[in-house]
Amino acid sequence: MKSTPLHLAGLLLMAVAISAGAQSKTSAQRFAGIWNAKFQGKTFATLTLRAKDNQLTGSMTGANINLDNDGNLTSAEKSGSESEITDAKIAGDTLSFDTKDQDSGEAMNWKMQVSSNSDGELLLVIPGRHVGIPTPRPWKIMREVPHP
């Protein structure tokens, strides 16, 4: 059977469409997985995100951190607590969400930005300026397990 250029072009377009469909992810799926923040090679915080119906749910482990005057981590270790993620909102490559400290009941605001399938940054957002409290800089996070 002889193929015409139009027939070959149609097959090529169908192959591209099938490939693109197989690779596309919802916004929530881009963030889903288990992400770890490390300081000096040790995990101090774990963020677990699950995507369902293009919504994110999950939890985040607590950490005890210290910052220098520029907002860089000087020490960080696990605290043993865990908080549910609430009010998750996605805008492009950025996820914003809240957690609530189990001990103090204090709400904390976070932003996560994905730079690749396995890398991103996590930022503790402190609203306004506070005397004596440096503005935190983002922490590098790595996806350990995709799509739990």
Compose a concise summary of this entry.
Helices cover 16% and strands 53% of the residues. By secondary structure, the chain is α+β, with helices and mostly antiparallel strands.
Beta-sheet strand percentage? Answer: over 45%
Mean pLDDT: 82
- Detail the poorly predicted runs: 3-24
* Main beta-sheet strand count, sense and barrel state: 9 strands, antiparallel
Beta-strand segment tally: 9
CATH class category name = Mainly Beta
CATH topology name, in short, is Lipocalin
CATH architecture term: Beta Barrel
- Fraction in helix: 10-25%
CA-atom Rg in angstroms: 20 Å
How far apart lie the N and C ends?
Answer: 48 Å
**Structural class, from secondary structure content?**
alpha+beta
Strand order of the largest sheet: 4-3-2-1-9-8-7-6-5
The count of domains is: 1
> What is the helix tally?
2
Helix-strand topology string: HHEEEEEEEEE
Q: What global shape is seen?
A: globular
